[in-house]
Structures are given as C-alpha cells and as structure tokens.
Fold this sequence. Notes:
The protein is mainly β. It is built from no helices and 14 strands. It has a 4-stranded antiparallel beta sheet with strand order 1-2-14-4, with no helix packed on it. Strands 3, 5, 6 and 13 form a 4-stranded antiparallel beta sheet that branches. A two-stranded antiparallel ribbon has the order 7-12. Strand 5 (59-63) and strand 6 form a beta hairpin. The chain starts with a strand and ends with a strand.
Amino acid sequence: xxxxxxxxxxxxxxxxxxxxxxxxxxxxxxxxxxxxxxxxxxxxxxxxxxxxxxxxxxxxxxxxxxxxxxxxxxxxxxxxxxxxxxxxxxxxxxxxxxxxxxxxxxxxxxxxxxxxxxxxxxxxxxxxxxxxxxxxxxxxxxxxxxxxxxxxxxxxxxxxxxxx
Length: 164
C-alpha cells in the first residue's frame, strides 16, 4: 500500500534557495525496507530532508537513497532474573520494653518479641515490595524495523520536508 500524505495549512515556506513543507501522513500497510514517499506528495520537486515525528509508539526514518520511510518500534526487553521480595527477620529473646515488641510468636505485625524463637516475616506482610534485582541485567534493546504487513494506517505522523 502507498503512503498517504496531507499538506497542512500554509504548507509551503520559502527558505531562500530551498522550500519547506509541513503536513501529516501515514504509511498504510508496511512493507519491509519502507514505504515510498515521493517529492510530489510532500509538495516539492526533490526532497533534501524529511523529518518525521514519532507517533503511536513508532519512530520513523526517511532513507534518501531509496526515497522510502522506514518504521521502527522498540524490540522490548525481558530481564533475565527475578526481583526478590525482602524478608524481615525478628530475633527472639529480646528484652521487653518498647511498644513495638510483643510476646506471642506470630508473623502478623511482629517487629520484635521477647520469646526465644526467631521469626522470618515476608516483606509483603508489611507492604514492602520487591527491591533487589537478583538476576543478570540485560542491556536495553534498540529499535527493530516493523514487520512486513503491519497495518500502520491508523498511525498519523507529522512531518517537515525541505527541498527544491
């Protein structure tokens, strides 16, 4: 499918020996290695530069040598490892005193206790979330070209073209 380009408002601006145009567009159904955008579509005789704003989670690149716009999306990251929920350990045999200590063995609300046994309390009991990554960090993934036949017709981008 071909790209759809719409020139907006006062779309032609003279920059001396170059012109600049503005508008919106979409690529339709994507084809590997990009969708053609012609100079005539953007109101020019030749395209020197075509800058396309990111839209709908996609990033776009104009490849001057082919006259095509390529679309990219994040490849995503799946970390290798887990995030551990901390455990609160309450040591038994503490001297009675502060109001935070209790005598019975219980894991609900225990922060300190006078009986001799030690209790390990999952952090979730206190609303403590996971805080320590215990796996191997994975480098952030780059962008990957959108797969062939992805329907981008609903993704409208803004562009600025400069040329003659």
